[in-house]
Design a protein that fits this description.
260 residues, mainly beta, Immunoglobulin-like, four-stranded antiparallel beta sheet, 1 helix, globular
Length: 260
């Protein structure tokens, strides 16, 4: 009887306070975006097919964008799915980054494109590995492109700024963080240094490194008395890795680096 009463109380408690309910699982990395005319959508990146697939909030397929990626290149990132950012009308557009790898010289080459949903190209940015959109509050929206040249040592970085005709209405954050933390050197050979900044009240956290299949490769404890960690990478296989700074269920920062 006692167990039955306990079970009943737990059931009532679940209804009273709500439940976390699984909705769907995708086998690819994805994100939500709020489109100006079409509302909220979930979009994902299929590297193998070079596609961006877009789903409604009930997880039914809405549209499939076939992205132009040159032979021997692979998708790296999708950003800023929008209807009124890169054009002045409601044409669906997206920016994406792709890369190639020169195995002989162990060099990655990145490029970025902005395209309409029909594949029409609005812009190509050679060398671009990262893209951000910034709202200058009354001065319009800017596209910030971080371009890397890994054919020279030390590698060079260019930051290119573009004025955008529209505005970002999105679930994605349009603003740059106060401090942009990029690993260096990137690509790494023997080691990489990852800057970080823990929020006030967080004394320690864990930096976790995973491969593109989501498998945990490495992890290190970090604390608030430092602002960076140098990790050995000589034992990593060549390739692209994701990292995140976490404490419990909270994730503070994330990014990527290359090992060659």
């Amino acid at each position: 009887m006692r167990n039955m009463l306990l079970g009943l109380l737990l059931t009532i408690s679940g209804f009273a306070f709500g439940q976390i309910t699984p909705e769907n699982t995708y086998s690819y990395s994805g994100a939500y975006a709020k489109l100006q005319s079409s509302g909220y959508k979930f979009y994902l990146m299929d590297v193998g097919l070079a596609q961006c697939r877009i789903y409604n909030t009930n997880h039914t397929l809405w549209k499939t964008l076939n992205l132009s990626v040159p032979a021997s290149n692979y998708l790296y990132d999708l950003k800023f799915l929008s209807e009124h950012l890169f054009t002045t009308d409601n044409t669906l557009c997206i920016s994406y980054v792709y890369y190639s790898y020169d195995a002989v010289n162990a060099i990655y080459t990145f490029n970025a494109k902005v395209v309409k949903e029909n594949g029409a190209e609005l812009m190509t940015i050679p060398g671009c590995q990262y893209l951000e959109v910034v709202n200058l509050e009354g001065l319009g929206y800017k596209l910030v492109a971080y371009c890397y040249d890994y054919t020279v040592s030390p590698y060079t970085i260019q930051t290119k700024i573009y004025s955008l005709p529209g505005q970002l209405v999105s679930a994605e954050s349009p603003n740059l963080p106060e401090k942009r933390n990029l690993p260096f050197p990137n690509p790494a050979v023997e080691h990489t240094t990852i800057p970080y900044s823990l929020p006030s009240g967080i004394n320690s956290a864990t930096i976790k490194v995973s491969d593109l299949q989501g498998r945990l490769i490495d992890q290190h404890i970090i604390n608030c008395n430092a602002d960076r960690i140098t990790m050995p990478t000589a034992h990593y296989h060549s390739g692209l890795y994701n990292y995140s700074v976490e404490a419990g269920s909270q994730r503070f920062e994330s990014g990527q680096f290359i090992v060659k």
